[in-house]
Every structure is written in structure tokens, then in C-alpha cells.
Design brief:
By secondary structure, this protein is mainly α. 44% of the residues lie in helices and 5% in strands. Helix 1 packs across helix 3 and helix 3 runs parallel beside helix 8.
């Protein structure tokens, strides 16, 4: 198995050892000596693998759909009985005590603190210079990635660029988001010097130059700076390092489907994925079971239970045009009971497919950045610059594949024309929703483009602009009373 995917007992020890403050993550007092641990290049590499393993945590990735899909018009979560934690995201009555907020905060800052520790220890280490530089840049990428998601969710957040002691943590306050973004940009600009790819199997899945540039483009896009976003996004495209996986069978979107093949991790379309591996190692992903309809048994998933979660909203099916094969792959309106032959109506996400090793132990990676996303982000930049013809072509590349054509098949029946800036803006918004459905983009797309209120209120949701950022987790305010809480107001129902 790839070393980056290994998560044995020693990694768990590492995670405990280097959670360095009450503020970031409560840790036990009986920790091992840091000086003893960082003695060899192998130990530093193992420490870096431990930082990557944060991407497999519940807070950062496994529950990412709760913060990125459920608030949008794509999906909703469990809301029956006492299970309302997900419903708070869907209907915008978030409490500062919501466990998913605190889980994300704790895991993200644990990862940031580990990245900072690696950067600090590398300075005086005996690691060969080129490898030392690469490890530091990988740590900077992870630090930027985690800060970016924190600032998108909470707005102003503590900017952490060095490890802190418990005593120091009580004086850490929130940093203006503009300063946080400046550090994210600086880290990603540095990380752009990472290798384009890795030849060793044990390094597949690590951050690359393309990942840094793609994320930098997304950061600038989120800030509303389309001109700056276009530069790194175009560099990713021009690098020829990535490509859309083309359809092989006419009348299908099997190229699109192949990207999500659980045995085709880190393929030519993948830019940066959270790495998961089934098999009873504790490194599998759980969305196959989690997203299956309640009480569906083995009619939808062959092994394990059904979570009845992240349910596509009514109207999600209609968001795809007729003839778009991505719809049937991405979601279903129900399933056939194998024993009775009866059709059971139950909308559910189908994009993450596998036969789990056990309940919640599947082989699906989470696609944080892939080439289709880059193409559509760049198209959005071109729309803003007024180059509508080129923008339409980039939109049509992903759209053609979805309708069963080759991405380069100019003039296909699926092509949309470059009519006007406003119409093309809505076209790229729709294409992002269809191509990237259930991958954690929709909510942030609506917020950054200023479309959240219009789109979501049209579906009957009650929200206001204070709901674009979440409350700071109450456990952080309790630990550090100097942290100012966000103004999150609940609309009357």
C-alpha cells in the first residue's frame, strides 16, 4: 500500500503528540519528546505523512459535504428526531455548539499545527536540501489548504504560521480574513515550485505544482479577483499535466464515470484528492454507505448499512438537461427491491460507488481539485474579461463529455453558444453544478458569486447575509473568551 495512505498506530501517536494547545486541540500531558522524534529524514517524512492524514479525518473531509453541499440547493441531511445537527446547515439555524463546526475547526487547526511543526523542524534538520525544500513546500500547501477552508466557513480566523504553547494559545485572536488570504496566497505561490508529478508510487497523491496553482486560482476566484485567478489556472491548463478522461463508448459518459472509479485513484484528471483505502486498515471512506437510502439494505450498497444522508433536494434531478448522462451516474430517484421487484422512490447520491470492505470502509477518494473544475473556473475568468467565445469553449469541453461526446468535438449538439456575458455566467454556474455535483463546491460557488440569496430563497429557504459565515465553535470561545463570536442571525420561519 502507498505509504501516504498508511495510518497505523504510530501515526495516531503522532497526531496526539503534536496537537500542541488547548486552543487548537486538547492533547494529553504524557507526550513523547519532540526532540527525540525529529532525528532522521525518515521521521520527518513520517511526520509529513501524519499531516496529510488529517485529510482523512471526520472534520476535514469525511463530513465536508455537511458544510459544502447541505447548505446549498443540492442536498439536505438528516432532520428526524433529535438528529438536527445537519439540518441546522440546511435551514440556517446554526448553533455555536454544532459538533460539525467544532470537529472541522479542531481537525483543521491540528493539521495546521502539524504543518507548522514540520516547517520549523526542517530548518535545522539533516535532510538533503532539495528534499528539505520539497517537504517544507508540501507543508505550506497543506497549511494554505486548511486555512482556506477555515476562512471560507468562519470568515476571520486565527492565522497560525508557527506552533504555539498552551500558554500562548490563550492570547491567539482572530485575524482579519484579508491577512489570512495574503498568507494563503504566499504559501501557495511558494508551493507552486513543487514537482509537477512524482515517479515513486509511495509519493502519489502528494501536493504538486498543479495542485498549488489550481488552489491558488480558486483562492483568487473566491476573493473576486478574476484577472489574478486566470493566471495560475491557465498555467495548469497549459502544463498538459492533466486532461479530461474521454468517453470510449458512444452514448455514455464513461470517461466521466472512469474518473470516479474507486480503483482509479489519482488519475490523469485528478489534481488533488483526499486519499482513502479500504481493507480494514482504518483508512476507508464511508460515503457509499452514508449516502444510501434508509432501510435500503443491500439493494443499493452490497456491504454495510445505509445512512440516508446528503439527500438530493427535490428539483436536483431537473437541474441536468435531458440527454446529460452525468445525471444518472451522479444520483438516482430510487431503487428496485431485489426481493419484491418493487420500485422504491428514494433520491440518493450515487457518485461515490464501491463495494465496501465493511460498513463505512470503501475505496473512494474525495476530489478536492480536478481538471474539470479548473476548466470551468478559467471559463468564469474569461467571461469576466469579455472573451465569451473562449469561455464557451471551455464550458463545452466538460459539457460535451457529459452528453457522450469527445471533449474536443467542436460543434456537438451539446455545445452552448457565446450569446452574452450574463447568459454565459449562468451557463457556467449551471455547468459547475452539474459537473461537480456532490463534490463540495456548490455552496461556496453561490456565496462567492453573490448568488446565494437569490438562488436559495427561490427554493423557499430562509437565510440572510449573516448566514454566509458560521458561528465560531463555542468550545473555542470558552477556552479563549477573547475570541469574538460571529454575528449569525436566524431568519424567522
Amino acid at each position: 500500500m502507498k505509504k501516504i495512505l498508511q495510518l497505523g498506530s504510530m501515526v495516531f501517536i503522532f497526531l496526539i503528540i503534536y496537537s500542541c494547545s488547548d486552543f487548537l486541540d486538547l492533547a494529553p500531558k504524557d507526550r513523547l519528546s519532540e526532540e527525540v522524534y525529529y532525528e532522521t529524514p525518515e521521521q520527518l517524512k513520517f511526520a509529513l505523512n501524519g499531516a496529510y492524514s488529517i485529510l482523512r479525518s471526520n472534520g476535514v473531509t469525511k463530513n465536508w459535504f455537511i458544510m459544502s453541499e447541505i447548505p446549498s440547493d443540492n442536498t439536505y441531511g438528516q432532520s428526524s428526531g433529535t438528529i438536527t445537527d445537519r439540518d441546522e446547515f440546511d435551514r440556517f439555524y446554526l448553533r455555536s455548539l454544532n459538533p460539525y463546526l467544532s470537529g472541522f475547526w479542531d481537525n483543521a487547526y491540528s493539521g495546521i499545527n502539524q504543518a507548522n511543526k514540520i516547517i520549523e523542524e526542517l530548518i535545522d534538520s539533516d535532510v538533503e536540501e532539495s528534499l528539505k525544500n520539497r517537504y517544507a513546500l508540501e507543508a505550506k500547501f497543506l497549511r494554505a489548504f486548511l486555512h482556506f477552508n477555515l476562512v471560507r466557513i468562519f470568515g476571520d480566523v486565527p492565522l497560525m504560521t508557527k506552533t504555539v504553547t498552551i500558554a500562548e494559545s490563550y492570547n491567539v485572536l482572530r485575524t482579519n480574513k484579508n491577512e489570512v488570504y495574503a498568507q494563503i496566497i504566499a504559501d501557495l505561490t511558494d508551493a507552486a515550485a513543487l514537482p509537477k508529478s512524482y515517479s515513486s508510487q509511495e509519493d502519489i497523491g502528494r501536493a504538486t505544482s498543479g495542485a498549488a496553482k489550481a488552489l491558488l486560482g480558486k483562492v483568487y476566484l473566491t476573493m473576486g479577483d478574476y484577472a489574478k485567478a486566470a493566471v495560475p489556472l491557465k498555467e495548469v491548463i497549459d502544463s498538459k499535466q492533466y486532461r479530461l478522461i474521454e468517453n470510449n463508448t458512444p452514448g455514455t459518459c464513461d470517461g466521466f464515470e472512469k474518473y470516479f472509479d474507486p480503483n482509479n485513484h489519482n488519475n490523469e484528471e485528478a489534481i488533488f484528492e483526499a486519499q482513502f483505502k479500504k481493507g480494514g486498515f482504518g483508512t476507508g471512506s464511508g460515503w457509499v454507505n452514508q449516502f444510501s437510502p434508509g432501510a435500503s439494505g443491500d439493494n443499493v450498497v452490497a456491504v454495510g448499512g445505509s445512512g440516508d444522508d446528503n439527500i438530493p433536494e427535490e428539483g436536483m434531478w431537473e437541474s441536468w438537461d435531458e440527454g446529460d448522462f452525468r445525471r444518472d451516474f451522479s444520483m438516482a430517484l430510487g431503487y428496485t427491491n431485489k426481493k419484491t421487484g418493487q420500485w422504491v422512490a428514494a433520491r440518493h447520491v450515487r457518485k461515490y460507488r464501491d463495494i465496501p470492505y465493511a460498513n463505512g470502509d470503501a475505496n473512494n477518494n474525495w476530489p478536492f481539485l480536478r481538471y474539470a473544475d479548473v476548466l470551468l473556473m478559467y471559463a468564469e475568468c474569461l467571461i469576466q474579461s469579455g472573451d465569451l467565445t473562449s469561455a464557451a469553449e471551455y464550458i463545452n469541453q466538460t459539457r460535451r463529455r457529459g452528453f457522450g461526446y469527445q471533449s474536443t468535438e467542436v460543434g456537438s449538439p451539446a455545445d452552448i453558444p457565446a450569446v452574452s456575458k450574463d447568459q454565459l455566467f449562468l451557463a457556467v454556474e449551471k455547468e459547475r453544478r452539474n459537473e461537480l455535483a456532490f463534490e463540495g463546491h456548490r455552496w461556496f460557488d453561490l456565496v462567492r458569486t453573490g448568488r446565494a440569496l437569490t438562488v436559495l430563497r427561490a427554493t423557499g429557504k430562509k437565510l440572510n447575509e449573516t448566514n454566509f459565515i458560521a458561528p465560531i465553535p463555542q468550545n473555542q470561545v470558552d477556552v479563549n473568551p477573547n475570541i469574538e463570536q460571529n454575528d449569525y442571525r436566524i431568519e424567522p420561519k
